[in-house]
Amino acid sequence: MTKLTVLQRVFCSALMLASAVAPAFALDYEAKPVNFVLQSPVRLIGGLAGGIITGGVSAPIDDGYHWFLKGTKHVAGKFGDEKGAGQIAAAVPIGGSVGLVLGAAYGTYDGFFHGFKKGWEKPFSRWSYITMEEK
Predict the structure, then answer these.
(1) Quick check: pTM over 0.70?
(2) Calpha distance 100→1 (Å, rounded)
(3) What is the pLDDT of residues 70-115, one digit of tens each?
(4) Where do the structural domains in the chain lie, given as residue ranges?
(5) Which value, to the nearest 10 degrees, does the dihedral of the CA atoms of residues 65, 66, 70, 72 take?
(6) Which of 14, 62, 69, 81 has the maximum number of C-beta atoms within 10 A of its C-beta?
């Protein structure tokens, strides 16, 4: 191994510092205005709040309910009549329970991303906490 002189160490340190700082000088400040940088933390918190509430509460309930109805109707139709009381009563434990579980699982996944997207666009708005689309 060779011994580095003080001047070589200073030069090497300066070169490493320059290579670490160089990407910051390459940023295009016109592309990312200061307003975006200041709004990002609020948007992130709004997106996470919307994602957690929508993905954890409202979407599983909403999708679970609707998939319960679809599963019951599908199985009742396979039994012969979608609107028959006996077919619906027999289809609820089979199609309804499966639809409820699968709908709640899908609602959790889809609701988190829906809430995060809406929470990022409009932080803490009512549209980031519900699964309906804005009109």
Answers:
(1) no
(2) 69
(3) 999 999 999 998 889 999 999 999 999 999 999 999 999 988 988 8
(4) 48-125
(5) 20
(6) 62
